[in-house]
């Protein structure tokens, strides 16, 4: 006789699908210093990012920034705001640096006893390269939450968070989808 397992995809968890966080204005703008530091971090010396003359002759007609740069702007915090990872470790010294980290405009926590979180992949759809001087906004939502059963018979969840980024002209810059596994 097989034992009935309890579903971790409860009605409360299912109800989060489609829930959106607040619209958040990133601190600062897409600026020269942030671009310089980002180029060095990703080790991409593309002249489209720094050579005005070269960029003017390109199909873009201006300098652009790496398309993924805006996806890191939510972690740019004003100097008076506490770092969310530091806060998570203070609240839970055993934090994995992912769970319990609450970003500005963040989504409500998933009401589950599954506390281990594993990155399950990310993708990005790029619509427009951000320009120097752009103000960036974003909003996240729970795109999908599904239950699976591991080889050992234990249920787990995959959670997909979709985040849309746009500029001050309301031009869509990119959409990211970040998947995690909750065990």
Structure explained in plain terms:
The protein is an alpha+beta fold. The chain has one domain: Roll (Thiol Ester Dehydrase, Chain A), CATH 3.10.129. The protein is built from five helices and five strands; from the N terminus they run H-E-H-H-H-H-E-E-E-E. Strands 1-3-4-5-2 form a five-stranded antiparallel beta sheet, with no helix packed on it. A hairpin with a 4-residue loop joins strand 4 (155-167) and strand 5 (172-182). The mean pLDDT is 88.
Class from secondary-structure proportions: alpha+beta
List SSEs in N-to-C order. Answer: HEHHHHEEEE
Q: What is the CATH T-level topology? A: Thiol Ester Dehydrase, Chain A
Number of domains: 1
Helix-residue proportion: 10-25%
Summed over residues and divided by their number, the pLDDT gives a mean of 88
Q: Based on CA inertia axes, which overall geometry fits?
A: elongated
CATH class: Alpha Beta
Separation of the first and last Cα atoms: 26 Å
Strand arrangement across the biggest beta sheet: 1-3-4-5-2
Q: Per DSSP, what share of the residues sits in E-state strands of 2 or more residues?
A: 25-35%
Task: Offer a concise description of the structure.
The protein is built from five helices and five strands. The protein has helices at residues 11-14, 32-42, 52-56, 69-72, 84-91, and strands spanning 24-25, 117-126, 136-149, 155-167, 172-182. It has a five-stranded antiparallel beta sheet with strand order 1-3-4-5-2, with no helix packed on it.
